[in-house]
Predict the 3D structure of the following.
Amino acid sequence: MVAKTRPGLILSIPPGDLERALLTLVPHTTSLRGGAFEVPTTASFLRPGAFNVQGLMTVPTSLALRFLGRLPEAQLRPVEAAVLQWLGLGS
């Protein structure tokens, strides 16, 4: 069985020379379930859907195949807030 390539929002900074080559990302989904941790997006470079904060993952940089676009600040902030809430770090 072959895994699909899916878009995701990279939240981590680029790894340094002495760091592991990993990226932390929030996957994008078009299969919405209406959960509190699905953050809708209307980015022009993505199909209509949401970022699934519950799917937060860390993957090797080799899995980042191509750059699709930059999420506008107005759409990035709700994703960041949802990540903090999901991790219990929000106020």
